[in-house]
Amino acid sequence: MIMEKKDRKEFNRRNFLKIVGVGSVTSATTLIGCKPDNRVSVEGGSIGEVPTDRMTYRTNPNTGDVVSLLGYGCMRLPLRQKTDGSGEEVDQETVNELVDYAIEHGVNYFDTAPIYVRGWSEAATGIALKRHPRESFFVATKSSRSNTLESGIAMYHKSMQDLQVDYLDYYLLHSIGSSIEDFHKRFIDNKLLDFLLKEREVGRIRNLGWSFHGIVDVFDYVLAMDVQWDFCQIQLNYQDWKYATGRNVNAEYLYGELVKRNVPAIIMEPLLGGRLARVPQQALNMMNEIHLEDSAAKWAFRYAGTPEHVLTVLSGMVYMEHLQENIRTYSPLEPLNEQEYETLEQVTEILVNSDYIQCTECQYCMPCPYGLDIPGVFAHYNRCVSAGKMLKSSNDENYKNARRDFLVGYDRSIPKLRQADHCIECNECLSRCPQQIRIPEEMSRVDQYAEQLKQRLEF
Amino acid sequence: MLKTLRLTLAIICFLLVTLLFLDFTGTAHTWLGWLAKIQFLPALLALNVGIIIGLIILTLLFGRVYCSVICPLGVFQDAASWLSQRMKKKRKFSFSLAISWLRYGMLILCTAAFIFGVGPLVALLDPYGAYGRMANNLLQPVYQGMNNILAYFAERIDSYTFYSTDIWVKSSITLLIAIATFLIVGILAWRNGRTYCNTICPVGTVLGFLSRFSLFRLTFDTEKCTKCGLCTRSCKASCIDSKNMVVDYSRCVSCFNCIEKCKFGAIGYISRYPGKEGKVVSISTTETEDKKGISRIKFLSIAGLFTFTNVIKAQQLLRVDGGLADIEDKKMPDRKVPIVPPGAQSLKKFNRHCTACQLCVSICPNNILHPSGKLSTLMQPEMSYEQGYCRPECTECSQVCPTGAIRPVTPADKSALSIGQAIWIKDNCVVNKDELQCSACERHCPTSAITLIAINSDDKNSLKYPAVNKDLCIGCGSCEYYCPARPFSAIYVEGNVRHHSV
């Protein structure tokens, strides 16, 4: 009896609270309801849900493939510490989650290579894709760093095996451009290209193309060959359009040539390794004046996606937030207008006049045999440039803080033994950098800057 | 009143001296460095006449207040003894006779050790050095650990206020000696108060001898005294014979506990030459209760050590992107002559003056100073360049050294002071082993003492070996530290017996 009474009492109280709660929520919603455009929801926050059915697609003129403008780059994948502490491994659950989400929201192009992510990328991508119908995605992989016919064929078979597919939608001659001789050595003299063309004939390669980093002669030469290229992968973004650094070629020229020959372009480095997502404040302000809520990354993706001959824009997305933002950007794509182009030109001006090291953190140089974290060093340096913390002189007003931030941040982001001062100038990395950065020289520059600060020298 | 004053000063001194050993940023010594320099044995070794005279006068005036206030090992014992009484209320002291043969024996031993240059023995007996080793070996890791926790959170909120530091065992022998000192002195103090100070400590013996003649001293008022023995039971130096109303001034450390305990005001701290007014006011206090005590110090075990795996993964046939190469730990080379810091002038002089207090080891921001494990120089610091090198802008150790073992130098002096010689080992050099060019030693040499010389002078693309110009080498170790050869560097520094300018 007492129990019952108590129960009822509690029940009543709970009910009462519930009613009051619902009541206040309803009244609150009614109040807010006065503003019709408010879109606060649990899933999408104030920016709304991520659309699943509004992705912009482009059609491949050669095969009629309908490809999503956002392509998933598997050059960077989420990693985690192994449970036994013996090193790192691919975080497969997260990869699966990201791939599922991407496919659900209209992404259907996945780009990988045998050498990506310490050689783990193809297998991890394969596992994630295997869980989807084969016709729901296009997969692209590459013929990387191989000199003989045998190793080239072995790599090709291994790729199919790791990706768990019996045909490849897109196959690329990986990163050609250092020299015409090198191209001949890798693909012509050993007849590897002939083999690949045959594979295309029998349908195991649906599209054959190449990715380009390097000197313009090689680009012109390969493009003019008596081979029908189904696509070409180039580095394009608003800085590289007219101000390509190192031995890269201006994207304006590359894209123009591809249009002339009706070869669809696949875009890599739309963010320049993330640098265009972290532009200096001054540049960001100029963008914000036009679109207060748009990120710098969105601008860069819109830029890369606007040209009509672009088939897809690759982005290595390790975080769900980045994937969601990029899906939003291209669902659908709002092409850039004249005024926006002009703004980006001004932004480019700021960027090229900044002191950035042109590293895209692609990891091709790694591992450094002497243990340096090359992309890490450059990333720290570039972050300080973006944040406006680089000192021009020891008399600068913010000397004390900027000095501390640089040095403390340096030790935090990179262990001492992997910092720039440990570079021995062996030059092993030089040939591997697709951006043609003189890595040892830049290391020495970063080290000199750090030394100036450590020793409190005047400069 | 007097006890409160003594206690307040003692706690302040103790905490600040401890801070000196904990701080690794080098800021504390700018303000507090003098606290190490007024310690008796360091001042004596540094021939710091002003301070020695000052301490002698202090003792001749007020007795062994040095032992009660300035000496950190003394205050440490008081803390242990106080804790012991808190834990076990019944524990009381009792009067005992002085063990003179041991006291003076130890003093003679210490003097002899100094004269014959047996540095480690002097270092072992120096109370300040003993405390320094405890603070450096046992307390600093805890302090650094807490700092690293703060740094961890600071990093999360993008603050640059704290940065993390490496915690490492600099010398296991010194660590063991520090633990032994802590246990022996701690247990003695826990059981019987100032036993160590009055039987072993050479400084205590010297000051005890002086304090027999001190102007102000404890004096019994024979009229008031009831011989109740409270004073004897409260005397941590066991020096009050209340039955005979006699105080052994050589052992009294002027803590004033007895004055406070005495219910009859029968003990006064008064001048041995009474003034015209007769007796100097005898101060007795009973009203003060226990105030803020010394906070309990927890000694935690040393936080995890950094270990690197030395396994080199089998090279895959296809070179893939990303990842970091393993870096093997460097090993210390077997040096014929130890390297001692710039300012030490010569090994002999250094070894004679150093009391191995570890202050320089605590402060070295480059992790190159660590206590020696050799018997003849046990616990005295040596340099080694596995984790860093003697950076050009740093003169921290020479600024903090209280004994003059490391004389002050400026960065400019240091850049021209040769403390050692770089020696190249061809077999280890990567140019020889891996047949690729390396310029690490040459590029980092601050005096340009290293030149790269072509192996084959006819070949323009010939690999180059480093050549050391002995006239320019200052032994800073940048070449050794930056040498990519592991675990043993291909270029290492041998110490100079006598430092000289280049």
Write up what this structure looks like.
- The complex is a heterodimer of chains A (about 450) and B (about 500).
- Helices cover about 45% and strands about 10% of the residues of chain A.
- Residues about 1-5 and about 15-45 of chain A have low confidence and may be disordered.
- The N and C termini of chain A lie far apart (about 85 Å).
- In chain A, helix 7 links the parallel strand 9 (about 205-210) and strand 10.
- Chain A has about 450 residues and is an alpha/beta fold.
- Chain A has 3 domains: about 1-40; about 55-350, NADP-dependent oxidoreductase domain (TIM Barrel, Alpha-Beta Barrel), CATH 3.20.20; about 375-455, no CATH class.
- Chain B is mainly alpha-helical.
- Chain B has 21 helices and 10 strands.
- Chain B has a two-stranded antiparallel sheet.
- In chain B, helix 7 packs antiparallel against helix 8, helix 7 (about 100-115) packs across helix 12 and helix 9 (about 125-155) packs across helix 10 (about 170-190).
- The N and C termini of chain B lie far apart (about 60 Å).
- Residues about 275-315 of chain B have low confidence and may be disordered.
- Classes of the chains: A alpha/beta (about 450), B mainly alpha (about 500).
Brief rundown of the structure:
The complex is a heterodimer of chains A (459) and B (502). With 459 residues, chain A is of the alpha/beta class.
Record keyword descriptors for this entry:
heterodimer; A: 459 residues; alpha/beta; TIM Barrel; eight-stranded parallel beta barrel; 43% helix; globular; disordered N terminus; B: 502 residues; mainly alpha; Alpha-Beta Plaits; two-stranded antiparallel sheet
